[in-house]
Amino acid sequence: MKGGSKLHQSRRAxxxxxxxxxAQSLNGPGGILVEDGWILDVGPRVTRDSVxxxxxxxxxxxxxxxxxxxxxxxxxxxxxxxxxETLASASEAAAAGGVTTMIVMPNTQPVIDDAALxxxxxxxxxxxxAVRVAPMAAITKGLAGxxxxxxxxxxxxxxxxxxxxxxxxxxxxxxxxxxTYARDCGMLVVQHVEEPTMSSGVMNAGERAGRLGLSGNPAxxxxxxxxxxxxxxxxxxxxxxxxxxxxxxSVEVIRTAKARGLPVTCGVSAHHLVLNENDIGxxxxxxxxxxxxxxxxxxxxxxxxxxxxxxxxIVSGHDPQSADTKRLPFAEAAYGAVxxxxxxxxxxxxxxxxxxxLSRMVEAMSSRPAEILGLxxxxxxxxxxxxxxxxxxxxxxxxxxxxxxSRAKNSPFEHRTLEGRVVETVVAGERVxxxxxx
Length: 438
Prior knowledge:
This protein is α/β, with parallel strands linked by helices. It is about 30% helix and about 20% strand. Strand 1 and strand 2 (about 25-35) form a beta hairpin. The chain is globular, with a radius of gyration of 21 Å. The two termini are about 35 Å apart.
């Protein structure tokens, strides 16, 4: 992972902000004092008067200050498909969205299934990325679902978890062995929960798919895989994370598993929290996602589960695709949407509507993913890395192709006006993004 700068930096204070840091029980007026990439103090004690002339001061009146966001599900094209996205371009998009740590998936060419490739990603990120980068490595060689990778070596190289990305490990015996080895290595296993033989449809199965004449992917494809996996977790005792839930039935499965004390966590994408299958409209391929957008009842249940804490984390599901693979008939178009820059703003609307508390929203995108992955970031505490975002909660902005920093432009929020905008992002005490009003 990208480390803090070793160069001397002047002491800087950000004051007069609304500081929201759930892990430190902060949710009120205050500031933050940083030096040499680390937090010296945070909270109501940090004021213009308290720091005096010892620090350069930034007044954050009307702004919110949160821990830097941690995005647990980011796809890039590097190595192999840099035309889609590089680590550098993804990191610029991340910084613009307040994301200070992005966890990249192994679905590259070649696949990140070897310790040398984990090392490559980390070295490449140190050289080119504006934010911190940590890789997840593959569960199986080549993502083929047959031969297990060297989990212990991948962890030693720096992988923070193992996953086959957009592919579920369908072979129960292979997945059982992977869970067993991961348990012994202290490694988190992340699964894309879709039963492959049931999930070949291109959108949610139901009346809407029938009206559009498109093949359906039933919600039960997710539930069946999730329930199978949890039986294997019960057998092995391994830590397990369901990458993205998309339906209300899966929420109940997770709720039951947690009540039984199983070591399970789960996530949901910002897209699935604010969009549903009706947004596909007239075959709009920017809304073709995996798992698919489902019903409004499913969306509402996911939001409620985040608010309750049954769903642990919110991710962007950032999956850049080129125009050549998106501007096709819906059934032929690639899955995926970019989301690093819009994740926070999209979810901010749910808080404004009273659906999710401010502290829970911030927790789901910062301290909770850090806790699950064992990262030192995601918190605002003395001695922690100075990674944070400053947000203008009333600033509206319109998502347009030419304003997105991602190389790919396949945003389902294209032309939509969102409220709540990151105006500054700081990583290791260094400003990596500042908003320039058009």
